[in-house]
Write a structure and sequence with these properties.
CATH class of the largest domain: Alpha Beta
CATH architecture of the largest domain: 3-Layer(bba) Sandwich
Shape: elongated
Radius of gyration: 21 Å
Distance between the termini: 28 Å
Number of domains: 2
Number of helices: 7
Order of helices and strands: EHEEEHEEEEEHEHEHEHEEEEEEEH
Helix content: 10-25%
Structural class: alpha/beta
CATH topology of the largest domain: FAD/NAD(P)-binding domain
Length: about 325
């Protein structure tokens, strides 16, 4: 005797600020949301220490604490938060088939994708060890903590150039480490970088080691043309070599750009599949902030609520 798969009115995939905000709104609208947390419950903010730029925390807060607060708030209104990883989806017909941990299949009347994105890292041991202790993948989030100090940033594209000029407004000196002989950034961004007096670009160079025991005290780089090594005296090290959205399982179903960011109908959280919505960094390559993710989480829940009402699902 086969048992019918569980049917869920609103399934939220992922658990960062976007997912939890969507859950708060969906639960309050009596959509009985169920959240599948994913590999990194709480998302990228759980590996962040100080969060100083989220409204409502005048003294700042710790990333993991903030995610715990959001989780409690979502659960208070009736969200069921479950451990697990969504491993595949079938969006060919509603209700949509979603497979969890490669074995359990559930049916969802509406789906909110809030799987986030992960920063790309250089892959050196000291980078991971000092992550949150002077090493960061977000200049806008953490640049403020290095006011008046010397920092380094690695990357060659538009984001790296934008973050380098942002840091130059706050820091005494910024070293921009570029692996090749030229930038990948647009001409306009290159012009901004090269005309910023306290920003020194070091071409043909790679990071060998981030120095420091408990926090960053310097960076050892080497020139891949001359093989010469050089130590930069810095207290902060920013990685800006790109992000990868966690959207692989939706390929073939959901419209995405060439990198994998989900395309939504402008001004909404709607994807190309009716009843499937996207929020947070999985659909945002521009802002990538906790507060913008939370905002789109709210939009996704409201869009899902309207969709369920229009399709007559109660």
């Amino acid at each position: 005797m086969s048992t019918q798969p569980e049917r869920i009115k609103c399934l939220i995939i992922g658990s960062g600020p976007a997912g939890y905000t969507a859950a708060i709104y969906a639960a309050r609208a009596d959509m009985k949301p169920i959240m599948i947390q994913g590999l990194q419950p709480g998302g990228q903010l759980t590996i962040t220490t100080e969060v100083d730029n989220f409204p409502g925390y005048p003294m700042g807060t710790q990333g993991p604490e903030m995610m715990e607060d959001l989780k409690k708030q979502a659960e208070r209104f009736g969200t069921e938060v479950r451990w697990g990883l969504v491993t595949s989806v079938d969006f060919s017909a509603a209700p949509y088939k979603v497979t969890i941990d490669e074995k359990e299949i559930v049916l969802a009347d509406s789906v909110i994708i809030s799987t986030g994105a992960a920063a790309k890292w250089l892959g050196i041991e000291s980078e991971q060890r000092l992550n949150g202790f002077g090493v960061s993948a977000c200049a806008v989030c953490d640049g403020f903590f290095f006011k008046g100090q010397d920092v380094a940033i690695v990357g060659a594209g538009d984001t790296a150039a934008e973050e380098a000029t942002y840091l130059a407004k706050l820091c005494r000196k910024v070293y921009m480490i570029v692996r090749k002989e030229e930038f990948r950034a647009s001409k306009a961004m290159q012009h901004r970088v090269l005309n910023t007096p306290n920003l020194e670009v070091i071409f043909n160079s790679e990071t060998k080691e981030i120095l420091g025991e408990k926090s960053v005290s310097g960076v050892l780089i080497y020139n891949n043309k001359t093989q010469a090594e050089r130590t930069l005296d810095v207290t902060g090290f920013f990685v800006a070599i790109g992000h990868k959205p966690n959207t692989d399982i939706f390929k073939g179903w959901i419209d995405m750009d060439e990198v994998g960011y989900i395309k939504t109908i402008p001004g909404t959280s709607k994807t190309n599949i009716p009843g499937v919505f996207a929020a947070g960094d999985a659909a945002d390559k521009v802002y990538r902030q906790a507060v913008t993710a939370a905002g789109t989480g709210c939009m996704a829940a409201l869009d899902a609520e309207r969709y369920l009402a229009e399709t007559g699902i109660h």
